[in-house]
């Protein structure tokens, strides 16, 4: 289907992880739909770098990425949505790596 003018992501996540064995050498995490411009979650990236991959680490990074979020009344739903998408993106990267 062709995209309509009103078709847009409520929240989007772009993530990349570099690995050396099981250790994350670097991570990049960018969120869309949560600010006026794509927003790089640098604090979350610093949490990921140098650590062994785990779901707990991904949850910590997701929490960190949204810790300073100040949603408006009508878009508060984006905070848990963004956290879930970050977790999904990071675990999907690790899962693809294992295949």
Provide a descriptive summary of the structure in words:
- With 99 residues, the chain is of the alpha+beta class.
- The protein has helices at 42-48, 55-66, 78-98, and strands at residues 12-20, 23-32, 39-40.
- It is built from three helices and three strands.
- It has a three-stranded antiparallel beta sheet with strand order 1-2-3.
- Helix 2 runs antiparallel to helix 3.
- The chain is globular, with a radius of gyration of 14 Å.
List keywords for this structure.
single chain; 99 residues; alpha+beta; Enolase-like, domain 1; 3 helices; globular
CATH class category label: Alpha Beta
- Which structural class is indicated by helix and strand composition? alpha+beta
The CATH fourth-level homologous superfamily:
CO dehydrogenase flavoprotein, C-terminal domain
Radius of gyration: 14 Å
Overall structural domain count: 1
The CATH topology name reads: Enolase-like, domain 1
- Strand arrangement, largest sheet? 1-2-3
Q: Please summarize the sheet with the most strands.
A: 3 strands, antiparallel
Sheet-strand content, in percent, reads: 15-25%
């Amino acid at each position: 289907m062709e995209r309509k003018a009103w078709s847009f992501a409520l929240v989007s996540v772009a993530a990349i992880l570099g690995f050396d064995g099981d250790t994350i050498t670097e991570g990049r995490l960018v969120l869309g739909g949560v600010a006026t411009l794509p927003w790089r979650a640098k604090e979350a990236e610093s949490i990921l770098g140098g650590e062994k991959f785990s779901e707990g680490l991904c949850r910590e990074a997701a929490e960190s990425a949204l810790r300073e979020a100040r949603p408006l009344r009508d878009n508060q739903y984006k905070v848990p949505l963004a956290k879930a998408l970050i977790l999904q993106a990071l675990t999907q990267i690790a899962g693809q790596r294992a295949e």
